[in-house]
Amino acid sequence: MANKKKTTIKDIANVLGITPSAVSKALNNHPRISDKTKTAVLQIAKNLDYQPNYLASALRKGKSNLVGVIIPKANSHFFSSIIEKIEEVLNNKGYNVIIAQSNESYEKECKSIDALLYTQVDGIIASMANETVKLDYYEKIKSKGIPLILFDRGENDLNVDYVGIDDYLSSQMVIEHLVAQGSKRIAHIAGFSHTRIYKNRIRGYRDALEKFGLPIEDSLIVESNLRIEDGRKIMKQLLELKERPDAVYAAGDYAALGALQVMQENNIRVPDDMALVGFSNEPFTSLVTPSISSIEQHSEQIGQIAAKTLLKRIETKNKNVSLNKLILQPELIVRASSKKLQ
Amino acid sequence: MANKKKTTIKDIANVLGITPSAVSKALNNHPRISDKTKTAVLQIAKNLDYQPNYLASALRKGKSNLVGVIIPKANSHFFSSIIEKIEEVLNNKGYNVIIAQSNESYEKECKSIDALLYTQVDGIIASMANETVKLDYYEKIKSKGIPLILFDRGENDLNVDYVGIDDYLSSQMVIEHLVAQGSKRIAHIAGFSHTRIYKNRIRGYRDALEKFGLPIEDSLIVESNLRIEDGRKIMKQLLELKERPDAVYAAGDYAALGALQVMQENNIRVPDDMALVGFSNEPFTSLVTPSISSIEQHSEQIGQIAAKTLLKRIETKNKNVSLNKLILQPELIVRASSKKLQ
DNA sequence: TATTTTTGTTCAAACGTTGAAACAAATGTA
DNA sequence: TACATTTGTTTCAACGTTTGAACAAAAATA
């Protein structure tokens, strides 16, 4: 109700009998303003409950101090912890973060990009929707000269900074581990191969199998959206094969969970009859019985690096710094679902 | 690299030989501008890839079309789906959403509020951190005349719109259900009673026990932060009582999960020896074995109502509309962890 | 034909902040 | 004492858009 006019630097100036410009400079700690004036301004500012108008300063300075983050979905631990880190780093530098969820939809992603551009964000950090194949909207960001950092789901063709883990190596680690546990026939519940990260996981899986002389069969590799339902459906398919696999490597934890449910419903002993490894190290993997082995992607690090890289880009805009492709080392967390020996 | 000057309405005006003012009016579909001019302006705008500068228009209009949302943590299904809905509703009305996580810390919450106020948001939707007891920062929002909507974690004393579920009734439903399943001694893993919602859940629990003539004992009610660890610790305590409970009602799903783990480690059959009900209906409750009964809070509805209420407030600012306290009906989802009969 | 109304546009100021340039006063240097 | 430098402040224009008032031309009315 008490909705009076907001106080501006002009009001402060009037009280002190100086100009708005002097007040502005005092507030920004300009070296040429006397300490006396500075303390006086600060005092009056507090008295009048002055709140600087970011819109005005942003307009004048051509800098909004807003950063956009586009993610497929916030409700996975992976993405939410990345966001948390990004926020932490950027808030400390005076930036605010606008989060947009694409819900894995290309259309929604485009809308979000437009909204962010309209809001005059100083930079964008994004992980692409599964659906996204056309890169036109990302090109648009680039063409406006707005710094863009991709993480996790990126595209090489775009030629921008990228942070992610080594998906190829991840698969190799998983297979190596499963082989060490005695697995001889390993299936892969894969993500869609048109997405780079999933393609790399498939490549790593194939190459590792080849290296160990294990069978690579198309019926053992099924692509999907990696949701629980997908994991369930594919697992049922796998159980119907003449020759069942003795291990399953899923490119996502939710799919792994679905697979686990089906295994249990079919009285398959995990890991003794069939071993299981997931991907992302979602918290629930350690909570279910048996707990699910998974790949830790170091999401906090990804978030931190993405944010810091963006800051660097914003600060050195136009100064043609070379591109950064940062590939982090994955970590295999071995849990009950794949621990046969001991 | 291609970082040319952005096109402004002035550029469009120059091309057409009219004034910026006319261009602005044309773009805003002003009735006094001729159709000929309007189409011409739209055409040139497209040609020059014109993007309106939101900062300038926001400054001039005194309206940022930005809305702040403060939540404790995005990684629960409950909060992330609320955000999704809020975004959906507000985006459709031309607003962008800034999300801030308090991480359950009062200090972080205050910082976030300051950041949002500085960003000149048109309104704030918030769910308070567990830690928050002092309401000074929320008063600050109100005193600036910025619409504020609370959801889930609110405070009656604040005198603002609120959306949430009927926590008291939820507890009653849970107890009624457990009693129907034959439980005679029901423990409550509670949230801290200084938070209104948890206080109400405790009240509902007590009153229901009284109604059914069941024992109300202090040793059966333990308050905590409701994380997994808390659930585990408290469950161990409960097992050490001379007289063990035969059912546990946890005010949060994570605490319920922790309790379940401890029960299983102690070879307690769930639900036969001990029944279990959680709260929030997090997705994992249906994924673990046995699946955990829980209370569905209709998060999408909460998000939608919160967003719509905010819109109404923004539109009718100062027009003294009466307060809205919207209390939704909870829904008890009965799963294996509490289904004894049949 | 004279007058009013409508239509389409321009003018000018404003939103609140910033920063380069200008300026006066105080201080330092020769 | 004369001049240069430093210090602290003011002046003024700008950022890009919006909006009410003003205005001229065209159309409608008397």
Short description:
The structure is a homodimer of 342-residue chains. Chain A is built from 12 helices and 12 strands. Chain A has 342 residues and is of the alpha/beta class.
Question: Can you give a write-up of this model?
Answer:
By secondary structure, chain A is an alpha/beta fold. Chain A has 12 helices and 12 strands. Chain A has helices at about 10-15, 20-25, 35-45, 55-60, 75-90, 105-120, 135-145, 165-180, 195-210, 230-240, 255-265, 300-315, and strands at about 65-70, 95-100, 125, 150, 160-165, 185-190, 220-225, 245-250, 275, 295, 325-330, 330-335. The first copy, chain A, has a 6-stranded parallel β-sheet, sandwiched between helices. Chain A has a 4-stranded parallel β-sheet with strand order 7-6-8-9, with helices on both faces. A two-stranded antiparallel sheet of chain A has the order 10-12. In chain A, α5 (about 75-90) runs parallel beside α12. Chain A is elongated, with a radius of gyration of 26 Å. The mean pLDDT of chain A is about 90. At the A-B interface, α4, α5, β2, α6 and α11 of A face α4, α5, β2, α6 and α11 of B. Chain A binds a DNA duplex (30 and 30 nucleotides) through α2 and α4.
